[in-house]
Amino acid sequence: MIKHVEDLEDQLMENEMLLQDALQDSTTKFKDKIKEFNGEISKKTQDFMQYVLEQCAIFHEGIKQHAMVEQAAFMAAFEENPDEFNDNEDEDFMAKLDVLGEKEAMMTHLDTYKEFMEN
Is the pLDDT of residue 83 over 70? Predict the structure, then answer.
């Protein structure tokens, strides 16, 4: 009977060691997989941020070009017939004049917008 108890203890000890090894292997594999997932997520996040910055730059250049065309058209219309624009009650005119009236102010405004989008 003592021999059977000793054999059973040996088998239990062996089973415990095998379970500990299996748990350690599983834990190591799990940690490695999580590190891999985190690396992939980090790379995809960086790629997406770079894509957004590139799209922002494209948008900024497009809106700057459009604003310059609008400013030129507005100033040409103003210079062609300034009496038509003397009505200070026209809110649309005053708004356009504020934004498009001076090229340097418009460009500064657009560059400020670009810096804001990049940050």
Answer: no
Residue for token pair 């058209």:
73
Domains in the chain: boundaries: 2-118
CA separation for the pair 96, 101 (Å, rounded):
7
Query: CB of 40 within 8 A of CB of 32?
Result: no
pTM beyond 0.70: no
C-alpha distances (whole Å) from 62 to each of 18, 65, 113 are: 66, 5, 13
pLDDT in tens, 33-82: 999 999 999 999 999 999 998 998 898 888 888 888 887 887 787 777 76
d(CA 66, CA 60): 10
DSSP 57-85: HHHHHHHHHHHHHHHHHHHHHHHH-GGGG
Q: How far apart are alpha carbons 77 and 66 in whole angstroms?
A: 16
